[in-house]
Amino acid sequence: MAASSIRIFVLDDHTLFRETVTAALGVQKDFSVTGQDGNAEQARSMLSQSKPDILLLEIALPGQSGFSLLGEMATLSPSTRTIMMASTEVKEDVVEVMRLGARGFLLKHTPLALFLKCIRKVHEGEIWLSSHLTEAAFQALGSRQATRLEDDENRLSQRETEVIQLVIQGYKNRDIAQKLFISEKTVKNHLSAIFHKLGVHDRLELTLHVFEKRLFPP
């Protein structure tokens, strides 16, 4: 196992799915699976001891729910970044798990390549939302109606809206600068202005704000 391996714990009560995911992760050179389980109560002590880099956590677990365990992760393993998994996409669930500290949300039928990309991106400190919600937010933010997120005095500029679009898609400052043909310093200035206008402190709060304000089609 390489010293830089991303250490992952898989928690899902569907045995076939869990073992399939574990096997797929195990063949990746930069991943190592530290454990797996189908029950949150049983997994708590293992998570506390192993403190994985990434926890793949099913929302609808029997007994203690994924929501409940997620709320405990800051105590059990503060350094672990949790990616929630679900069979169906419920917008309210997505907002709630992000509120509770999740760093990503995946549908369980997500193609393997995207599944692996999600884990790597979250490990790098980025936020990952399902493609449907990301695209919906992108479309809404791109509409004229979505440029007003708070009130008239807090109206975002077109450039600030473009920056938000790219932040939601997981791009870093360097990538945003390249895509918009501006400097990284200018990106940072735009982000500072956006955070101030919307009353948020970081990218995670910005992403939550976008979804809490219902900036997606009904």
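[next item in queue]
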Amino acid sequence: MADMKIYALEVGMIRTNCYLILNEESHEMIIVDPGDDADLICEKIRQLDGRPAAIFLTHGHYDHILGVNDLRAVYPEIEVFIGEKDEAMLKDDSLNCDCYGTRITVEPDHLVSEGTLIELAGFRCTVMHTPGHTAGSVCYYYEAQGVLFAGDTLFFRSYGRTDLPTGNSRDMVMSLTRLLTELPDDVTVLCGHDRSTTIGYEKKIKGFQ
């Protein structure tokens, strides 16, 4: 099995974590949540000699999608994946919570849902539907590598806000409970903002052990 390398970039005005998943053998790459600063992302891709195949969006808020169209202009072969219940958020700039006057809509290529298996760049992930922050929030779980791309569902010692369009606090509690009880303790959680964490650590902090 090829080695996976993950690179993190802080992008945009509210410092969203954009992740680059690189297959070290083929140099195929997946981009997770390119929230802005497409030039910076492209420069890192060039440094790594990456060949982007896809963009995975954990949800449809502006600070996770602002770089998508600019990246598509450079890499037209890129395909965009998002949770099916956040499709409307991509297509309606009144829903994606733009706070800075930058209007954006994105046309997705693939709508994913609970249990969707994605095999790209030599790796397989499973989609976990984790509503709460938005109705269509998803996490991408790479079981073989022990990595979860959690977006704004689970943060280090915290979790995403639920007072924005389609957010729901009850759904958030259910999603957090599921992540913290179903996944192994040693899974690394790569969050949409701030530092990474682990399932085991968040279990302790949030009282699940």
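[queue empty]
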